[in-house]
């Protein structure tokens, strides 16, 4: 097990800056996820930890030991690549044994360790099968076994589930978590899938355009996003531009031409991200916090509107309500039966509870 410390890392490819001024500390035994859209620098960062790329600026440390220019084979990291990078015409045994043979282990030790790890990933019966004859999920397990067999201090996984269908993806999520616990290994997991990140991680770093916007636990990232990028990338949200307000007791306002359709925020203490020097502020309200009813509710920030769309997903119902020409609000409620569904075109009221409104700056 190791800690990983990245300080002020920048990586240039020609004039492309893939990663910019990245600072991160990953704790011993942590399941840590890099989450962000395609092209945001996740793979580049992972490869700098593995040693396949060297940073243009900055330092990589494991357990406070400088590894910045150490070659990959001397870092003791196990990596699973997005496309698995297996040898298709070799057997499962040969694929998994490869790294051990390179390390010049005795034949009997190689055999024992390969058999052990294949038991752990439940592939023992396939030990002599050619990799090209295995299913996608089984190939994924071979790739995991190959990374784990060297007993790495750090396990690096680059979008390992993106080539699997939805059902298998679910199954492999728990499988990877089980292995991480059994091996008790510091793990860095790359994904663009927010559900994967939220369900699997101890902590998440949210990336965009080569920069890390926020590091936190899944609940911190979801409930207290630091800016509009994080709020919109993780889950869904209603985002409205707001202004600071001078009137006593009211701190922020979403200013609509229609006074009854403006939204006021009076809680100046809770739920406000730091926004020093921001050009634009937003209020962010998650759809599950937005209440819709045909009768007006008690309280501030009750806006009238018209149901524009009702989307049924099975477990929940999304209702999109048009408030003004420019503003629609989305509400998500658990499915409580047909009698509770709003009808398209219905005149309704929307309630935004103030404690559920988060104030955030533009990224
Ligand atoms: P992600 O894994 O988040 O999708 P990458 O780390 O692969 O993103 O890429 C980040 C940026 O760096 C992208 O703009 C990509 O085109 C660029 N990039 C990555 N690898 C190379 C490379 N070997 N040469 C040139 N540009 C690269
Ligand atoms: Mg990538």
Distance between the first and last residues' Cα: 35 Å
Order of helices and strands: EEEHEEEHHHEHEHEEHHEEEEEEEEEE
Percentage beta strand: 25-35%
Tally of extended strands?
Answer: 20
- How are strands sequenced across the largest beta sheet? 6-7-8-3-9-10
The overall average pLDDT, rounded, is 94
CATH superfamily of the largest domain: P-loop containing nucleotide triphosphate hydrolases
Q: What fold name stands as the CATH topology of the largest domain?
A: Rossmann fold
Helix/sheet category = alpha+beta
CATH architecture of the largest domain: 3-Layer(aba) Sandwich
Give the overall shape: elongated
Spans of at least 5 consecutive residues whose pLDDT stays below 50 are none
Helix percentage range: 10-25%
Cofactors, ions, other ligands: adenosine-5'-diphosphate, magnesium ion
CATH class of the largest domain: Alpha Beta
Q: Which sheet architecture does the biggest sheet show? A: 6 strands, mixed
Number of helices: 8
Number of domains: 2
Could you explain the architecture of this structure?
The chain has 363 residues and is of the alpha+beta class. The protein folds into two domains: 4-223, Rossmann fold, CATH 3.40.50; 228-361, OB fold (Dihydrolipoamide Acetyltransferase, E2P) (Beta Barrel), CATH 2.40.50. It has eight helices and 20 strands. The strands form four sheets. It has a six-stranded mixed beta sheet with strand order 6-7-8-3-9-10, with helices on both faces. A five-stranded antiparallel beta sheet has the order 13-12-11-14-20. The relative contact order is 0.12. The mean pLDDT is 94. Bound molecules: adenosine-5'-diphosphate and magnesium ion. Magnesium ion (MG) binds next to α1. Adenosine-5'-diphosphate (ADP) binds at residues 13, 16, 18, 36, 38-44.
